[in-house]
Specification:
Number of strands: 13
Largest sheet: 13 strands, mixed
Number of helices: 2
Strand content: over 45%
């Protein structure tokens, strides 16, 4: 079964050691949604999202803990805000550094994957920990040039590179904080059957 998502992935790290990957999807098999994958300083990996969205994401990426909290996103020009529970991210997105046209999955799995690994140490094609085959087809890539984050009112420090590994899926995000618009194709052997408590 093939599923497609269209939207963006934004990845940021902070001096405190907390790192976040935000998925903001305008189109998906379950409708528009946003989620946050959070790597804490103690190594625990947490997924934030409304229950149905969290279940969908968890069926691809089995993180250590799921919190059924809605994720709200707001974009105003180059300013991008993400809120979920006690977490708030305020980010400034830079100008586009890369823009790519549509291309076939075979190109993404071969040429594009090779180039991305050589240039950015990331993958555009792989298999998730739950066995879902994935193609990440970037449309545009930008740097996150400034950001602040707070958790329950506590500041998480200055914007910082994303230390590796995050171990969310088959690839880590770019080391430099980034905002990538893309299409993601997922190929499953069966329908997801994960349930999450709100």
């Amino acid at each position: 079964m093939m599923e497609t998502l269209r939207g963006s992935i934004t990845s940021v790290g902070f001096a405190s050691g907390h790192r976040f990957v935000v998925g903001d999807w305008q189109q998906s098999p379950i409708g528009p949604f946003a989620d946050v994958m959070w790597a804490r300083t103690d190594g625990k990996r947490i997924l934030l999202g409304e229950a149905v969205a969290a279940a969908f994401v968890h069926s691809v990426y089995p993180l250590d803990e799921i919190r059924g909290e809605p994720v709200e996103t707001e974009r105003d020009g180059r300013s991008y805000t993400v809120r979920s529970g006690g977490l708030q991210l305020e980010m400034k997105i830079g100008l586009a550094r890369l823009s790519l046209p549509p291309r076939p999955r075979k190109f993404t799995a071969t040429v594009e994957n090779w180039c991305a690994r050589k240039l950015l140490d990331v993958c555009t094609y792989g298999i998730s920990p739950t066995g879902v085959v994935e193609w990440y087809r970037t449309r545009s890539a930008r740097r996150v040039v400034a950001a602040t984050a707070s958790l329950d009112g506590t500041d998480l420090g200055a914007l910082a590179p994303l230390d590796r590994p995050l171990d969310f899926g088959f690839t880590d995000p770019p080391r430099q904080p980034s905002h990538v618009r893309l299409r993601v194709d997922l190929q499953r052997s069966s329908s997801p059957a994960v349930q999450v408590r709100a």
